[in-house]
Amino acid sequence: MRNVLVIEDQQDIAHLVRLHLQDLPCNVELAFDGRSGLAAAEARSYDLVLLDLMLPAIDGLEICRRLRARPRYTPIMMVTAKAAELDRVLGLELGADDYLTKPFSIRELVARVKAVFRRMEHLASTAAPPPNETLAFGELQADVASREVTVHGERVSLTTKEFDLLLHFLRNPGRVYTRLQLLDAVWGYGYDGYEHNVNCHMNRLRAKIERDPAHPSFILTVRGVGYRLGDARPVPAER
Questions:
Q1: φ/ψ (deg, to 5) at 135
Q2: DSSP classification of residue 15
Q3: What is the CATH topology of the domain spanning 134-236?
Q4: Does domain 2-125 fall into CATH 3.30.565.10?
Q5: pLDDT tens figures, 147-159
Q6: How many helices (H) and strands (E) does the chain have?
Q7: N or C: which end of the chain has fewer CB within 10 A?
Q8: Residue 76 belongs to what H/E stretch?
Q9: Rounded to whole angstroms, how far apart are CA atoms 87 and 81?
Q10: What pTM value is reported for the model?
Q11: What is the pLDDT of residues 22-53, one digit of tens each?
């Protein structure tokens, strides 16, 4: 059974979320302020932390930052107000896996929690990739085992989701993907209206791997459709 921590100061929302996640089934623990929530998250291992950003004592962004500084990886789904776009961007920059905006439907919440669990199961099943598996596309290289990326010989630091997005393109070069297809392939869901999640990650990924993000040479925009990685197939990099 999955273990989920819900850090939410609105107790009616927290109890409603717990009620529905228990039907998955999940063991769900609640924390109603940032300090107790952080203490709980650091005290044991969870399969998911559902994290509100507007919290008393310690806010959700600080909790996200502290959890991502720890070696143990815990999936984090942020919950934000609709107008808090800057907070959502900052949360994603700090390493949150996904976010929901209030008000949200319970149906969508449950679907996206299931998607997080599926992604973690997939990562666990591929935790031991072939030794020395490295994909290269021109001067761009990605080591699958270590999840390290270099561009023009220089190491680039990517978040978990940025690396997953890049790896998807490297394994499918030349193929055009719509934003909804990328949501489904990389995030595990394909909800209309969340394509801006792809845009946000794509902009940050390009800023890190492209010499000129405004005129990319690796991940190209196919106007009116989506994105693709160049035209040629990547080749195993020489060691």
A1: -105, 140
A2: H
A3: Arc Repressor Mutant, subunit A (1.10.10)
A4: no
A5: 899 999 999 998 8
A6: 8, 12
A7: C
A8: strand 76-81
A9: 9
A10: 0.64
A11: 999 999 999 999 999 999 999 999 999 999 99
